[in-house]
Design a protein that fits this description.
This is Oxidoreductase molybdopterin-binding domain-containing protein. It comes from Fimbriiglobus ruber. Pfam families: Oxidored_molyb. InterPro entries: Mopterin_OxRdtase_euk, OxRdtase_Mopterin-bd_dom, OxRdtase_Mopterin-bd_sf. Helices cover 8% and strands 28% of the residues. It has 4 helices and 21 strands. It is elongated.
Length: 394
C-alpha cells in the first residue's frame, strides 16, 4: 500500500505513515494480503525500545519464549477477590510452555488490521493467534469484586515508561456480536511473534485500536475499579471507541494526460460498522465548497469497485488460510466480504479530463449508510478524515 510522491490538500492526513505494498495498476490485487513482518509500521514506546535490547538483556527481562512469565494479580488499590493469583514469588506465574498447553485446547486465530488511534493509515494486516485472555483469568479462581482488567508490558523497570490499557471484564469473558475473543497472542501469520511486534506475548483486542493491544506483556491486573485507567486516557484520547471504517488511496497519478482515463486504487479499513461501498470523486482544485458541507457530501461521488478476496493469502504458508480461522469457512474462504476489522482494496477508472488542476478524494459508506467520516468524525476516537490528493492534468 505504498503512497507515491504527490501533493495533498490541507484536509488530508499529513502525518499519515507510508504503507508499503503497491499494486502495479488498478486491476491487480495487491499482494501479500497479510503484511510481511518487515513491512509492519512501528510505533513502539520505550527508552530503549524493548525490541532493541540485546539478546542477553531480553533474556534477563523475560522477553524470550524461554524466560517469559506472566503475573495475573489482584489490584492492591481496588482488590478483586482471587483464589489463586499467578505470581513469580509464589512460583505460579504463567510461563510460555503453559500458555501453549492452554493453546492446545483453546487457541484461536483471526484476521485483524492493526491501526494506531492517531494515525491515518493502518500499521499492517495480520492473522493473529493465541489463547483467549479469559482462559488465563479463570486460572486465578476469581470470586467477586471483579469489574475491570488492566494490563501492561515490560517498561525498562521505569514506572514513568509504563504503558497500560484496560477492558471491562465483560469484554474479556464474553465475545459480543460474533467478535473474536481478546487473546494473549504468540503467533502472527503462522510464525512466532517476534520482538518488534511485541513478542513473545502481547494482547490483541480484535475490534480496538493498537493501544489496547499491549506489547511485551508481563502483568494482568484484575480490579474492582469502575473506570478505564489506560495511559491513553491521560493523553486526551477516547479509549473506548472501536475501529472506524474509512478509505484512502494507494495509486493516484500526480500528473495525468489530458484526454486519457485515469486509473486509481486504494484500500479501505473495515471498521466495526462494516463496509457497504467505496466511492471516489475528482473535481477542479478550486471548486467552491459550501460552508455547511465540511465532509464533501456534495462532491461528485461515484462508486469504485471493491476487489474480491485474493486467490492466495500472501505471507501465509502456501498462501492458504489455516483451518478453524475465525471468519473463514472450512474451505478457507471468507464467510462474508468485506470482513469487519480488516482491510480490503478498491479500484476505479476515472473519465478523461481536460488540462487543469484537480483534487481527488475517496470515502467509504458503511453498512448503516453513513458516509466517511461519519458517524464519528472526531479525531479523538480515531482518524477517518477524507484524504485529498492533487492531480495535474496536462
Amino acid at each position: 500500500m505504498a503512497v507515491g510522491g504527490r501533493a495533498r490538500a490541507a484536509d488530508g492526513d499529513k502525518d499519515k505513515p507510508k504503507p508499503r505494498t503497491k499494486p502495479a495498476n488498478a486491476d491487480v490485487q495487491p499482494e501479500p494480503y497479510f503484511t510481511l513482518p518487515e513491512d509492519f509500521q512501528d510505533v513502539s514506546r520505550g527508552k530503549p525500545i524493548p525490541h532493541r535490547l540485546t539478546d542477553a538483556q531480553k533474556r534477563d527481562a523475560g522477553l524470550t519464549r524461554e524466560t517469559w512469565k506472566l503475573e495475573v494479580i489482584s489490584d492492591p488499590t481496588h482488590p478483586a477477590g482471587l483464589g489463586k493469583p499467578l505470581t513469580k514469588t509464589g512460583g505460579t506465574a504463567l510461563d510460555f510452555e503453559s500458555l501453549l498447553k492452554l493453546g492446545e485446547k483453546h487457541a484461536v486465530r483471526f484476521p485483524k488490521v492493526m491501526t494506531c488511534l492517531n494515525m491515518g493509515c493502518p500499521l499492517g494486516m495480520g492473522l493473529w493467534e493465541g489463547v483467549p485472555l479469559r482462559e488465563v483469568v479463570w486460572l486465578t479462581q476469581p470470586r467477586d469484586n471483579l469489574r475491570r482488567v488492566f494490563y501492561y508490558g515490560f517498561h525498562n523497570d521505569d514506572p514513568k515508561q509504563m504503558f497500560r490499557s484496560s477492558l471491562p471484564v465483560g469484554r474479556v469473558l464474553e465475545d459480543p456480536f460474533d467478535l473474536p475473543p481478546v487473546i494473549l497472542c504468540y503467533k502472527l501469520n503462522g510464525q512466532w511473534l517476534n520482538s518488534e511486534r511485541g513478542g513473545p506475548v502481547r494482547v490483541v483486542v480484535p475490534e480496538a485500536y493498537g493501544f489496547k493491544s499491549i506489547k511485551w506483556l508481563t502483568h494482568v491486573v484484575l480490579t474492582n475499579l469502575a473506570h478505564a485507567n489506560d495511559t491513553y486516557a491521560d493523553d486526551n484520547n477516547d479509549v473506548d471507541s472501536p475501529l472506524k471504517t474509512f478509505a484512502a488511496s494507494l495509486t493516484v497519478p500526480q500528473v495525468a494526460k489530458a484526454g486519457e482515463a485515469i486509473a486509481v486504487s486504494g484500500y479501505a479499513q473495515v471498521g466495526i460498522s462494516g463496509l457497504s461501498k467505496v466511492q471516489v470523486s475528482i473535481e477542479p482544485k478550486n471548486t467552491p465548497r459550501p460552508a455547511d458541507d465540511p465532509y464533501f457530501t456534495k462532491a461528485p461521488w461515484v462508486d469504485a469497485e471493491v476487489l474480491s478476496p485474493p486467490k492466495r493469502w500472501g505471507a501465509l504458508a502456501d498462501g492458504k488460510i489455516p483451518a478453524n480461522t475465525h471468519g473463514f469457512d472450512a474451505a478457507g474462504k471468507p464467510k462474508s466480504w468485506p470482513m469487519r476489522l480488516t482491510n480490503v482494496h478498491w479500484a476505479a477508472v476515472l473519465p478523461a479530463l481536460l488540462a487543469g488542476e484537480y483534487t481527488f478524494r475517496s470515502r467509504t459508506i458503511d453498512e448503516k449508510g453513513h458516509a466517511q467520516p461519519m458517524p464519528r468524525p472526531f479525531r479523538k476516537s480515531g482518524r477517518a478524515a477524507i484524504e485529498s490528493v492533487y492531480v495535474t492534468v496536462k
